[in-house]
């Protein structure tokens, strides 16, 4: 009888746990977080396979040049976003959805075309290592890739704003095509790596626009009212986001110039692997911003999000820290040299997560000036310390700069949180 009673209790708890799980997945915060997490896991996981194959198929020097090209692509797209990726989410529930989406996509697409043109004009005077962009065919393909990447990025932000993170996942699923494309393009050298990504973005953008048009009608229309209402928020977040994203995007170019092609490749692979750890904090942070924009309770969601991230973060760090050597060996024996950098980046993840949770709080309270100041400190510390430490410590110098920067940011964040009464 006691055994039967115990089995009944286990069954009841199991049912309760299952019911609780399904109930949690119906919650917009968790549902959106799950699809954002899956989308980013898929993207980073495929990215891992992409660079794994690239490292096997292409010489280390070619990989180093390709990382500079791809990072330049990312930087141009972020510059061209003009802060609309944040305004999409913040104002989608305050204005006509079609006008918000159409205006954001049209303006950022025009901006990306303009910035791509400027980049192609000046790049050959600055970076001789990627002088192949002097050739008209390569230059045209780079231009098209930038424009489609911008549309792809804004479409993904639109899915988030519409609380349609399932389509965000589908969007990232299509990006998986870039892995098999590496093989037939190997004859192009470093541009073969970039070409695989470019072709994939063109295909993914067409698919993304199709998915978006099923939800709403996107037109070539610019809503001046939305521009006026969101200008302060967009411009402030544009500056803030640019300060936040640009160090990681320009770092491969800096390392390429200071240390060489091989070191740029070693840095990029280690940094890409460490991104696996930061997926959960970034996904929960974005979901926190989305739900807060729809009026959901901030403090309650913050506590729930923080607990979920902690559960996911600890085992991720342990796996990366203890099996990092094995993971790097998959890329080739040369990449094991970046193990120390990978360890430092993994250990800094707690500080990175705390900063990522602080950003949506400031955005929801429309404290853009404070966010700009915080990201300016991050930008200055990370770039300044990297320049100082890269020469004596090689790529490990970036790891030290990264850790020191986020420790200082954590101290600043905790002081502000206490002052505002958030903790």
UniProtKB/TrEMBL annotation:
Give a Pfam family name: Polysacc_synt
What is the protein's name according to its record? Oligosaccharide flippase family protein
Its membrane topology, per UniProt? Multi-pass membrane protein
Where does this chain mainly localize? membrane
Asked if the keyword tRNA processing belongs to this entry, the reply reads no
Please indicate which superkingdom the organism of origin belongs to: Archaea
* Keywords, ordered alphabetically: Cell membrane, Membrane, Transmembrane, Transmembrane helix
Q: Where are the transmembrane segments?
A: 34-53, 65-88, 100-122, 137-156, 168-187, 193-212, 242-259, 265-290, 302-324, 344-364, 376-393, 399-417
One GO CC annotation: plasma membrane
Locations listed in the record = Cell membrane
UniProt-listed InterPro entries:
Poly_Biosynth_Transport (IPR050833), Polysacc_synth (IPR002797)
**What is the native source organism of this protein?**
Methanolobus zinderi
Lineage start: Archaea, Methanobacteriati, Methanobacteriota, Stenosarchaea group, Methanomicrobia
């Amino acid at each position: 009888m006691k055994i039967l009673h115990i089995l009944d209790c286990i069954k009841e708890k199991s049912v309760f746990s299952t019911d609780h799980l399904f109930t949690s997945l119906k919650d917009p915060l968790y549902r959106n977080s799950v699809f954002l997490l899956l989308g980013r896991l898929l993207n980073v996981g495929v990215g891992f396979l992409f660079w794994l194959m690239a490292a096997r198929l292409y010489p280390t020097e070619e990989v180093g040049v390709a990382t500079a090209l791809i990072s330049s692509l990312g930087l141009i797209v972020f510059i061209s976003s003009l802060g609309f990726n944040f305004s999409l989410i913040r104002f989608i529930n305050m204005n006509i959805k079609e006008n918000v989406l159409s205006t954001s996509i049209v303006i950022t697409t025009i901006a990306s075309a303009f910035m791509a043109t400027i980049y192609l004009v000046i790049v050959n005077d600055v970076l001789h290592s990627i002088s192949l962009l002097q050739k008209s065919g390569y230059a045209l393909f780079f231009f098209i890739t930038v424009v489609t990447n911008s549309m792809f990025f804004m479409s993904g932000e639109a899915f988030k704003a519409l609380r349609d993170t399932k389509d965000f996942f589908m969007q990232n699923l299509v990006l998986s095509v870039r892995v098999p494309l590496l093989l037939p393009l190997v004859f192009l050298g470093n541009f073969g790596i970039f070409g695989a990504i470019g072709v994939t973005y063109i295909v993914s953008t067409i698919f993304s626009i199709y998915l978006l048009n099923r939800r709403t009608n996107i037109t070539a229309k610019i809503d001046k009212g939305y521009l006026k209402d969101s200008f302060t928020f967009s411009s402030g977040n544009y500056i803030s986001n640019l300060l936040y994203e640009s160090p990681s995007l320009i770092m491969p170019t800096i390392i390429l110039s200071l240390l060489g092609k091989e070191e740029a490749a070693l840095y990029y692979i280690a940094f890409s692997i460490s991104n696996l750890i930061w997926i959960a904090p970034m996904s929960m942070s974005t979901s926190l911003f989305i739900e807060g924009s729809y009026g959901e309770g901030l403090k309650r969601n913050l506590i729930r999000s923080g607990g979920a991230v902690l559960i996911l973060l600890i085992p991720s760090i342990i796996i990366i820290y203890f099996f990092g050597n094995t993971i790097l060996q998959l890329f080739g024996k040369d990449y094991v040299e970046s193990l120390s950098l990978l360890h430092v980046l993994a250990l800094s993840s707690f500080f990175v997560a705390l900063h990522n949770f602080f950003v949506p709080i400031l955005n929801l309270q429309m404290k853009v000036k404070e966010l700009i100041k915080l990201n300016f400190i991050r930008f200055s510390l990370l770039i300044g310390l990297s320049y100082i430490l890269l020469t004596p410590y090689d790529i490990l110098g970036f790891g030290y700069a990264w850790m020191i920067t986020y420790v200082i940011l954590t101290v600043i964040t905790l002081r502000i949180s206490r002052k505002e009464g958030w903790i």
